[in-house]
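Checked the freezer inventory, then went back to the computational side. Two predictions to log before the end of the day. The first one is the construct we discussed on Monday; recording sequence and tokens without edits.
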Amino acid sequence: MKKIVFTSCFILTILLGCEPYFSGLDIKNDHQPDIETVMGDINQYPSLIGGAYNNWWHHMLGAYDGDTWILATNSDAYTAGAGNWDLQVYYYRRNYEKPMIPNTDKNAGFPKTLWYNHYSKISTVRNMLAMISNKGLIFKEDNKDQTYKILANCYFLMGAFYTELSLLFDKCFIITEETDLQKITVDDIRPASEVKETALSYLDKCIELCNSHNFSNFTGLLPLDAVGDNIKLRQFAKFMAARAIAYQPRTKAEYADIDWEKVKNYISEGLTMDIKAVLPMQGWQEWSYAAASWPGGNQWGRVGLRVINMMAYPNDPGAIWPLPIDFGQGQTLPEANSPDYRLGTDFVYYPSVNTPTGGLSYDGYSKYSSYVLNRFSESGQPSGEGELYFLTKAESDLLYAEAALHTGDISKAVELINNTRQKRGKLNDININSTREAILEAIFYERFVECGYAYTATPFYDRRRTPIDKFQLTTRSFRQLPIPVLELSFYGLETYTFGGELEAYDEYEF
């Protein structure tokens, strides 16, 4: 017989919303309204959906809590000027062994905050879907049943949330509108591969509704009307589905198992615009790591020297990575030279130090670089104006190029690569006569330049999955996140973690 074990008081309170139960006891708190009372009016659902979209972006950018920022330093896309959120701990440097994720401290924010932030969003959307299903709620506009608009957005959001959980964590709870929240057990913890399939099932439901209905979406869901109608919402859902499949591998060995035909079927109708906010904008006062790295701002981080080394001419003295052991405080590399025009426009040589901590080099210059990010980052300026990016059309195009290459459409792959490589970088080295290996390397190169500085988990996903050895994560880097110790301890499960040890897949030494 299946043993009933209530989830931890933390996740249970999140999932039950305003109907909390005491941990381990089936005792209702009568002083709080229950879910049916709070969510009985379907007319409030558009505002709840808008809040879910906003929280999704906020949490994924990691504003002010640094959760996703750690992924950026672990992938060496950024280097940290200050020690906040343990950012410096995970940046690679010579003769330095990255540690394991300290998944024994119940008070540690990472990866706990990422876990509970996602389940808090799932709770809201899951409850809306459950109420519609169980109570037969109908949403009307102009006296017409348009419940499908609520459903399409809820399916998209559930798909997006589970996509990210499947990419970040090795295992997760799978909780849907059909789940009995009072009977969740350890059996509901499933591997990331199954979480991915849950994400895809929700995204497919969204796509199906967008195919069968023409509609203008609710306002205020994402900036620039990014999901403003059924066509845009369908495109975003297909982009997310392609990400769920293509970014799932934790190693280059797993990369060989990607179903590229399936990825191509989704991504051939992906994003047609950047997902970004034009600031100042009410409700968007937060800032990303890109904003924190703006040259005129506080410079909490800088562009990782690994990226500069990738872009510069071979053996360029201004692009040494990792820095020598004896490279100490106060020393500065010269400006690097590159055939890529973007090393000078997107990434700007800026050796002077300006941070709220009093200096990027306070614990050794080797932890940072002389390059600041001059793109995706204008929101860091004192006026609060500029553009705050999340996901880009370039990421969608390059994912399409990757799928096209693996399915034999070389000309399409080259066309999409050169949208950025040739037009922005002024590089003319990739064409239909290039080798497959050269094209694949160019795709990942472009991804690290074009896609690594908006949502900072993207270069982490790319580094762990790439088959190009020199682009792989550095040794002892974590490649996924464990279930937080808070959940494990409630169930009496053994604590575990990732990173910090030389693994079998760490074949490329640095």
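The second is the one RB wanted added to the comparison set:
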Amino acid sequence: MKDLKTRVGVLSLCILAMSALVITNAFSAIIAAFPNESVAKIQMLGTIPSLGTLLTTVVVGILAVHIPKKILALIGVVLVGVGGLLPLIFHTNLDLLLVCALILGIGLGFTVPVTTMLISILFSQEERADVMGQSTAINSLGSVIMMFGGGLLGGHYWQNTYYIFLITIAIFLLVLFLIPMDKVAHTTTEQGQTEKVSAWLLLRHLSKYVFIVSFIGLFMSMIYTIYPTNLSIIVATKHLGGTSITGIVNAIGTIGGLVAGFSLRYFNKLFKDKILVAGFITLGITFLLIRIANNLAVVIIGALLSGFAMAMVMATIPFYVSVVSAPVEIAISMSLCQFLNSLGGTFTPIILSALHIQAGNAAFTTGIIASAVMAVICLVFSIGKRVMTNGQATKSANKAVAANV
């Protein structure tokens, strides 16, 4: 029962993981509401939270070495609630909406990396892969709740989409009462004394595979961000619907992530060390189907596959990072992973704009190509096999180093 309570508390944080994308359902309506603002600036409502997350994860990695991770999680939930609910008051000024989105992202900068840290320290490695998969499934379930609920709430007035962030109150209470207070990490000296860990020294001694896998996460984030930030534009361009329809498509699509997350152990058995390859191929098919779709049914199939892709890749990446990290390194390695993930999500629209790639169909074509390239890279360099083969040896070496930090 204690393990179940802990699991429920930790996984409740995952409901918020995709919450920054809630407002993307209303992009078409927001573009109409702010005719003098550029489309790229409006799209930043869905991407600027990644900037807040990006800036925060650097600090959280250091804080998590010295402060209980439960405390950091509670701070994050509060900030997500503040950033998500203030737009109900300040929704007539796009700049203020962007500030609120930044606050929301700062909150996610606490909750997202801390969630993977908590999973890594509260569950054994045998349980960890399963819980990581479940966390991705709950990410998708959270997306269903947030995207579908937000889409319905904003059907008539787009600003009402933000009412969905009232859910942060329930999540705060679950974290407060169900997650045990964790201990701050320490190392043991040769004299048998304990001392606080140096975050900088731990970063210097991380396995090279932590960096490799984290950079794969960065590219996954960059590629995947193309999907939600352009979906409503494509749906509107194809005359398939508006804000409510996009919300429904996103909600149905995340069912794929929900199924894949709870079934990750079976995907691991099926694809073994090629699961990243399978994930990127699936994402490429997502972009292709929606790019050529002429009806809503094909768009929904593509959206379902996007959930499968997201679950396969984004659950595997933190698991791989945990495999090649010693327990004392978890806070730093997970923060690095999330930092690079946020970096990709933040700058994707800017990069596409710099390359003169237009929003909509052209962006999805770019997603097809980029997904194929990443699948080939993961296959040719046998990323999964290298990580799992070297994981245990690297972890043993890291433990020895960490003991002397």
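For RB: The CA atoms of residues 31 and 39 lie 7 Å apart. Strands lie at 186-188, 194-196. Let me know if you want it refolded.
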